[in-house]
Amino acid sequence: MNAQTGFSTTHESEAPFGFDELFYSRTDTRGVIQAGNDVFQRVAGFSWDELINAPHKVVRHKDVPKGVFCIMWDSIQKGNPIGAYVKNRCKNGDYYWVLAVILPIEGGYLSVRLKPSSDVFQRIKEIYPQIVEREQREGLTAEDSADLLREEAATQGFSSYTSFIAYALGQELAKRDDRLKRTADRRTRILAEMNHALEKATEQQVKLLRSFEALQSVPNNMRIVASRMEPSGGPVSAISENYKASSQVISQRLASFVGGSDNMCERLSREVARVLFLIGCNRVMSEMVVNIDKSVPVPQIDWMEEQALLNRLEAKCTDDARAAMSRAVGYAAELNRASADIRRQMLGLDTIRVLGRVECGRMRDVGGLSTTIDQLDSFHADIKERLEAIMQLSEVIENAMSSYMRSTA
């Protein structure tokens, strides 16, 4: 074991396989292998007798963080597809890397795996050893390890691990197309652009909410100034109260689609990521159907049944992607309406701010009111800039959705 990386270094080398090859395996609900293809068997180096009815963890490599499998099992046991970068071990001690796409099926799970090569994968090879080292040094649980993976996804600008792995699958498929000299899939590119714009919009919205939260202290400062400048109930006091009430309404509106664990932005992000991932699943399932047709017969495996299963999954991925996009379109429209409402409410807030500036001039800035109004000017400029960025990104998202819907019509 390498003390610095936490990865194995004992006489192991990478087992070769091509970018044109796909691994296939099907397990029962316990993860026991029921079927697989010749690529899986050849690269892993086990005989069919050693693979069929063996737990899939027979190829598990200790260099993969426990959190990867924690996230995977949590997702598929809830009936949701998931993906993961996995380093597997061969029977002879060698290893191979795959990006695995795992889908729940009746009576178990199915996985199709491809050879990764994107920049995302290069980052994963840096992150995994760090997490494995922490698992060993700190005695982390699988859930602790999963939290570290989610934190890494957030660090890279993704709202969830699901959004990250959907982006990763899109990147790997695009890289694979390039290596195999194939035309890039337009739907995947559109959705990747949409996903990127959505993550940026969410980032701006979170910052916008924080700006409004910070803004709440300004009306309090105005009241303090007013108490030194005028009798109770004077114009400055009224302005500060009106401003506080109006800004709180906007903050609550923002929190409804940015704050909380299931806010509007998160729902939209989840559906777009789901579409992107399902389109990727559809692509690999479609290609796997063709590959299965060319597979070498194995006594224990009914290839016609496996091919029929893949065909059903391919169709299901298409239907589920269409349904998810429909939900995403609805969330996007709702988000745009909320953004437009906030812009209108900001006009009212601006009017109150201007009244404060006028009152400041009338009273010749007795008590330092001008400094407080300057704070409002700064906050308003920041808020307007973020609202403008959000609306521009929303336009990108809407255009991408329209392009996607046209491409699937």
UniProtKB/TrEMBL annotation:
Among SUPFAM superfamilies, the record links this protein to: PYP-like sensor domain (PAS domain)
Q: Which residues form the PAS fold-3 domain?
A: 37-105
InterPro entries named in the record? PAS (IPR000014), PAS-like_dom_sf (IPR035965), PAS_fold_3 (IPR013655)
The record's Pfam families line, in alphabetical order, gives: PAS_3
- For this entry, the protein name equals PAS domain-containing protein
